[in-house]
Amino acid sequence: MRSVIRQRLLDRIPAVNGKILDAGTAEAGEAKPYLVLTIGSETVENDWAGSSCKIEVAPYAPPAELPHVDSLAAAVISALDRQRLTDAISGKSILFRYIGTGSDTVDEKLKAVARSVQFEVFSLGWMSHTPLDPDPVAAMAAWTRARFPEIETDPVAWNPSEDTPALYWRVAAIRSIQTVSQGAWIEATLRGHMLVPHAEARSRWLDLTVRQLALDGQVRMLDQSPMLIQSVSADGTQDACRSGQISLDVRFGILQTAASSPLLDHIHIGGA
Fold first, then answer.
1. Is the pLDDT reported for residue 48 higher than 80?
2. CA–CA distances in Å: residue 45 to residues 42, 97, 120, 189, 242
């Protein structure tokens, strides 16, 4: 995680000239400005959601350059808030959420003024999805893009805002499977994670989404079969980075794959 965060800050904040230090390593004679990165302990809530931790990035500048600290703090927020980063080695993805900024601090020892910027960092266990055919998650992503072109559904490219929120769907549970002669009916619960910076805009987008789902009553799978909507609800108090705010109960069918028969090697036609 540390190397991924460090690289992101290096790429987005050239003003620090590549100086991103770990906590406790700065010296009094260190040329300023620079950033100090502190990573807190990890908390694991459940198996599917992955872990979370808090980090702090503190810009340091000479005491007379407080406005420089302001601009660096804003740059840190812009570089990390609501961004999804992937570790090239482990393949694991993390998502950042800005949670606050500390007060100005004068460090006499380091001869610097600083301000901490805090984030919560989530390991995106709930984004681990292997597509199936037909795939309810792919169907919901396609429905979202068709009904709400403003909503971003690709975690690799999204940058959630009030006007362009991000929405990620996942299968939370398979409630039942009813087998029939040519396949099966599956009843499942999907969860939608709506990422919008501010509560008022988030509430509006949640309301628009669940109303449209209720009106449509069904969603077309990518094979054009219908996925029936049994119930839909939204709870804006739920955490978008953990449980997700939209709950969607659906019913869809899967067809049995036709068994292949061996080719005939010989054909014999004989009389009586």
1. no
2. 10, 17, 14, 21, 9
Provide the 10 A C-beta neighbour count for residue 46. Answer: 11
Contact 114, 103 (CB under 8 A): no
Predicted pLDDT at 52: 82
158 vs 68, more confident? 68
Beta bridge mates, 95:
84, 122
Interstrand relation of 112-114 and 105-107 (parallel, antiparallel or unpaired):
antiparallel
- At 210-253, the pLDDT tens digits run 999 999 999 999 999 999 999 999 999 998 888 899 999 999 99
Domain's final residue, options 75, 109, 125: 125
Terminal C-alpha separation, the chain: 79
Encode pLDDT of 140-180 as tens digits: 999 999 999 999 998 777 778 899 999 999 999 999 999 99
What is the reported pTM? 0.72
Per the CB < 8 A criterion, the answer to whether 205 and 213 are in contact is no
Q: Domain of residue 52: give its range.
A: 2-125
- Please indicate, yes or no, whether residues 89 and 185 belong to a single structural domain of this protein: no
Residue whose token pair is 């978008």: 240
